[in-house]
Amino acid sequence: METITRKTLIYKSGLGVQCINHVRGCSHGCRYPCYAYMIAHSHEQVKSMDEWCQPKLVSNAAELLTKELSRKRVMPERIHLCLSTDPFMFGFREVTEMTLKLIRIMNSCGVQASVLTKGLLPEELTDERNYSRKNVYGISLISLNEDFRQQWEPGAAPYADRIAALKKISVSGLNTLVHIEPYPTPNIIQQDITKLLETVSFANTIQFGGWNYNPLPKQFPEYEKFYRSQAALVKQFCED
Predict the structure, then answer these.
(1) Cα–Cα distance between 61 and 10 in angstroms, integer?
(2) What are the residues whose beta carbons fall under 8 Å from the beta carbon of 113, sequence distance 6 or more?
(3) Which residues partner with 113 through β-bridges?
(4) pLDDT at 88 exceeding the cut of 90
């Protein structure tokens, strides 16, 4: 795997969240389109989607994180991994190993980690000698249909494997999350969100959001009404 170096690592996102992105690019090649790729392309960090899908690991990420945390007068309560890449990129053990190392560094400083992935959460995270039980581990999941996944998230982990890895984390008593976004409208795929919710009912938190940056959802009649109805179903399911 190719590597790059950076001068800084921790940053505050536009969402007001402390984040790190220790990889440039992502092999998952999401075709929603990928907002992170759009930003990187507009800033001329990558020239094409093909280049984006050949990720480069930040080789000095651990050193940067250690140095930046040591200089903090007030430690952040939590740092998120990641907004513009995937911390457990499917098929890239180098990324997983670096992510695990970074979480250990954060936790040793009393900083909690929040994680969101379309890859597989490793069982090592259940080792409470090295990883805080206050961390939050999440997966992105918008369908159970593998044909849909192969069309829109071609390089990501299969849905069933993604869910199974999350469940192992959950069974260990850790805090788990399922992020259902960007959820497709029926003109993209016909599916019952209740089945998806029931499959991940073990998770502590479920988040829901619509599909942006693509004209397809708006071609569905009364798409805004559809999203309101699905959001209401999610809310009622969680309350129940």
Answers:
(1) 10
(2) 78, 79, 80, 81, 102, 103, 106, 107, 132, 135, 136
(3) 79
(4) yes
Pairing of strands 3-4, 11-12: unpaired
Segment 83-110 shows an average pLDDT of: 97
Measured distance CA(155)–CA(91) in Å, rounded: 9
- SS3 percent helix, strand, coil of the chain, rounded to 5, is 35, 15, 50
What residue ranges do the domains of the chain occupy? 3-239
**For residue 82, is the peptide bond before it cis, meaning its omega torsion is within 30 degrees of 0?**
yes
**Do the beta carbons of residue 100 and residue 115 sit within 8 Å?**
no
CA distances from 115 to 80, 231, 240 (A): 6, 23, 26
Backbone angles phi, psi at 19, to 5 degrees: -135, 160
Which tokens in the block code for residue 185? 């409208």
Q: Element (H or E) spanning 180, and its range?
A: strand 175-180
DSSP 117: E
Find residue 23's DSSP bridge partners. 57
Give me the CATH code for the 3-239 domain, please.
Answer: 3.20.20.70
pLDDT above 90 for 14: no
Task: Look at residue 15 and tell me whether its pLDDT is greater than 90.
Answer: no
Structure tokens at 87: 């911390």
SS3 44: coil
Q: What is the pTM of this model?
A: 0.95
